[in-house]
Fold these 2 entries.
Entry 1:
Amino acid sequence: KNEVEQSPQNLTAQEGEFITINCSYSVGISALHWLQQHPGGGIVSLFMLSSGKKKHGRLIATINIQEKHSSLHITASHPRDSAVYICAVNNNDMRFGAGTRLTVKP
Amino acid sequence: GAVVSQHPSRVICKSGTSVKIECRSLDFQATTMFWYRQFPKQSLMLMATSNEGSKATYEQGVEKDKFLINHASLTLSTLTVTSAHPEDSSFYICSARNRVNGYTFGSGTRLTVV
């Protein structure tokens, strides 16, 4: 079993839909990250969380430390949100989920 | 702020040659940099952690003599793939710890060994 599990693996949505991507982890962590990887491979760090909830624009990330679970939400999704979203946890180093490939259709 | 510049973005090399990939932190000092490898449709895998002025720490299964890491300054870490083979073809990406949001990633290097 992977230390970091993401679901779903693939997600297709229509423009405007509300999107949720889930991440569960099995190890102790100091922080959890949500990353966005574009088709060219470049990676952008979206959030770093150690508790609670963070919001940036249309993106919201939450974490429940007791349940070892985090969610990434995208409101009013847009085709430009199409990317792979990766959950990563770190203590001394980072461990990555397999990613969720999101496709938002116009 | 907190930008990491990675070069080259793409490189094609012949089997048996060496390739150097550079990662520079442009506006902050990175005492620790991380090197990852990603095969197609797979997740990022940590290869090694480099600390400025000391030897890199390699993950299990990563050959330190093949993947040479140098972190000689607080703003530059390099990964050299020595005697590259086709199976080394992959996407290599670095990241550095920063004080803003934890980690900043380079843009990645797609290596193709022919």
Note: Residues 69 and 79 of chain B are 5 Å apart (CA to CA).
Entry 2:
Amino acid sequence: DVKVTQSSRYLVKRTGEKVFLECVQDMDHENMFWYRQDPGLGLRLIYFSYDVKMKEKGDIPEGYSVSREKKERFSLILESASTNQTSMYLCASSLSGLLYNEQFFGPGTRLTVL
Amino acid sequence: EDKVVQSPLSLVVHEGDTVTLNCSYEVTNFRSLLWYKQEKKAPTFLFMLTSSGIEKKSGRLSSILDKKELFSILNITATQTGDSAIYLCAVEAWAGGTSYGKLTFGQGTILTVHP
């Protein structure tokens, strides 16, 4: 079974703090993704990575950065948290290549910025 | 810009009812359409559709894709309270001949099944 784990289920931070969200997958997947999920907006892609040290901007990268130093780990960084970054954050991973491969999701981190 | 629209946004039914969830899309270089179910945790994969007219089925759930009209439907027959969840539709597009599996999601449909 593919396992995608996220470091925290719930997190409360103050405005201006630096926030790290960690995601680890155990199936040797090349691709990893960070989404945020807000009511009525669905899942929106923040950043994704298709290889170690590679990253691509998604649809809403402003205010975020990412790091992928090892294949199994993909970190999302909020350099200076703001209240509009209060959201559910979901990490996902998938195999690369020409096969049709679905994304496997972690349980999510509900971040509240006060 | 790729776009996925789901309808209805929310639906309340009683156990035993049949429901149809809709997903329409506009995407350049379509590769696949996926359905996920999300309860109070990680979305779980239901179906991947790549070809028109071929129904995918799993128990009481089924789904079909129409690539000409650019939509998909997810049917759930004889609904149960355990079907209560958010149902997410997502479309994957080819990017320059390869795909990194980048998905564009719809807003989701919140299904509530009452006993």
Note: Chain B has a mean pLDDT of 92.
